[in-house]
Amino acid sequence: MIFLTLIFSTFREAIAKKIFIGFFAISTLIILIFLFLINVDSVEGMVNMMESTGEEGVKQLVIGFEVAMINISYLLIITFCFISVSSFIPSMLEKGHIDLLLSKPVSRTKIILAKFLGGVLLIFISLLYLIGFVWLILSIKSGFWHVPFLYSILWLTLSFAIIYSLIIFIGLVSQSTILSIIVSLFLVFIVGPVLYFREETIFSLVSNEAFQFIVNFFYYILPKPTDINQITTDMITGNPIKSYMPVFSSLLFMLASLSASIFYFRKKDY
Amino acid sequence: MSVISTKNLSKEYSSKSFSQENILALNNFSFEVESGEIFGLLGPNGAGKTTLIKILLGITFPSQGEIKIFNKEINDESYKFKVGYLPENHKFPNYLTGEQVLHYFGKLSGMSSMDVKKKSDEYLKLVDMDKWRKTKIKKYSKGMLQRLGLAQAMLNNPELIFLDEPTDGVDPIGRKEIRDVLNNLKEEGKTVFLNSHLLSEVELICDRVAILNKGSLVRLGRVDDITSVSDNYTFTTSDMKEDLLNSLLNNYKATINGANEFCINTLSIEDLNAIIDLLRKNKILIHGLVREKNTLENMFINLIGSQN
Fold it and tell me: CA B147 to CA B168: how far, in whole Å?
């Protein structure tokens, strides 16, 4: 019961800080843009043209829309999510608030887990709204009910959860919202792509084996949001998924981050 | 029965700078708080008072020593179901209303929604905040926040309540009301652990006090015992001759404040009467005789002043 109260308080904080409303507004805007696009003459014409080429043409068009949607979600929504949730831990740690929280009969482990689950659940619901509606619009319009697109809600949530575990750790150690935002965005938009394309980029410039070993080491221990995004895209497009290693290693990173956060929080004086 | 007991409790904070020594916030602190008493914790800034409360509540961890609350080790979180706490400079989520604050912290204390509702109604009325219950707390004044904080600390009907500067920012009438609330709690058999800078208030409501200085316990006892020093009497008289003044000085170790005023410190009422007899025998008129009692504040200032 106390655990649920803590999860609910994360929701309430998000609503109070207009995070949820902002997310809802952006999602609604994207849904409306999709609705508009799908009804404009040029797209209508494209659908008709695809229909004339058969069912396969429509499927390809829908999948194209879905992949575009995933990339928009990944770029815009995940960024927005990171910025939104980065303040959860620093605000919890504010003097006068953390004292009260820790004086209640709830373990520190549960506090961290509740903050984590609260944030993840919040993003899951937001993505369910956005992607669910887009999927519904595309399906009704095209008659092609492409279920794998819905799975992307889980994949995007997973991507978020992995980075969010790091945001929690940084928030606990530094008590800085800004640092949490910078590190998470740096990881997702700089480190992730660079390590994903390391063979085409870094290794083509530096052939030193020791250096390549170090880069590979970082690739394997750090979370791999770009890889997971690629897996999501492959799943939607029906391309074979080369390896689930990025998912498992990222999950391990998430567990390590959460464990480190719990360990730190349990030892820290406030 | 002791509700709180500590034995050789110490807390050392490591210095953030290499050049500085560690800070000893508490040094071998041992004490007990009995059930049903109002216990005051006094000390200058940085004495370790808040550290002690935080350790007792599991917010900060001790470096060494034993702590038992309700006869249980404090790593057993269950004792917190029976504890209420009002921290100094508490910070409630400012997007909540007064009523929502109580609901949130009540639920975190393990109360059912129905109990929270019932107790919120009761305590918001008690602290005179009922009319502001639907107002967001970002609009509250400091005094209003303190009142709400007190309601929050009492909400789960705790057996032991920690109050860190409960009257901070509260006007004199509000302070009197808070004192009344604390006395009511005592009548109900609750144990109150009070940390306050307002020594006159502590003197009015506390049964026992502990005085901390630089992390060490310098005095512990009943307020009456601590404030009752050997009685001081100030005499105001008609002008006295020098030989009489010398006699008072030598025989009674009087403090002479001029030709017509002196102070005597005596333990016996017989000595006091002997002095009166002596004065009257010498045809000295006694204009006034005042028995001085040490206040907690005087005692505190003298005690801490002498140590620093």
Answer: 10
pTM for this one? 0.83
Residue A151 near chain B (CB below 8 Å): no
For residue B34, give the 3-state DSSP assignment. strand
Name the band, by pLDDT with cuts 50, 70 and 90, for residue B105. very high
Confidence class for position B209, pLDDT limits 50, 70, 90: very high
For residues A131 and A90, the answer to whether their CB atoms sit within 8 Å is no
pLDDT band for position B169 (50/70/90)? Answer: confident
Q: 3-state class of A95 per DSSP?
A: coil
CA distance B151 to chain A (A): 13
> What is the number of residues in chain A?
270
CA closest to B95 among chain A residues: A16
ipTM above 0.90, yes or no: no
Q: CA nearest A265 in B: which residue?
A: B59
- Report H helices in chain A: 2-16, 19-39, 41-52, 55-72, 78-85, 88-92, 98-102, 108-142, 148-174, 177-186, 192-196, 202-205, 209-221, 225-237, 245-267
